[in-house]
Specification:
Layout: H1 8-23, H2 28-33, E1 36-37, E2 40-47, E3 58-63, E4 70-78, E5 84-93, E6 95-96, H3 107-112
Antiparallel strand pairs: 1-6, 2-5, 3-4, 4-5
Length: about 120
């Protein structure tokens, strides 16, 4: 059909989220080494315009509010013509990888965010 498969947008959001964290000096790998996992507990995508093969897409990631036990992101994806392709939202939970129970946002992440 010449358009990007809708399932790829979850991966685009993940790339936006991981690079946003990396820009703060925090990586998923570091968090996992410190016993924190971040499973997605909610994901939504609003398709506005189809992304076409070979489009150059820019993903902008926004932190919705101060993270506590959950962290929530909004996303915007635009193409090379700065046309809005889609918007989205995801909620992830901080989980202790040993107990598999929810835990608070790590202090080092809150400090990186200026809280």
């Amino acid at each position: 059909m010449g358009v990007v498969y809708h399932g790829n947008y979850a991966q685009f959001f993940e790339m936006g989220r991981t690079e946003w964290l990396r820009s703060l000096g925090v990586t998923y790998k570091d968090m996992e080494m410190n016993g924190i996992m971040l499973p997605v507990i909610s994901l939504s995508c609003n398709f506005i315009k189809s992304a076409l093969y070979d489009d150059v897409l820019t993903i902008t990631t926004f932190l919705k509010k101060k993270p506590l036990v959950k962290i929530e992101f909004d996303y915007e994806i635009v193409n090379q013509n700065n046309e809005l392709i889609c918007t989205g939202n995801s909620v992830l939970a901080f989980m202790n990888s040993k107990t598999m129970k929810p835990t608070r946002c790590p202090i080092y992440l809150l400090e990186s965010l200026g809280f």
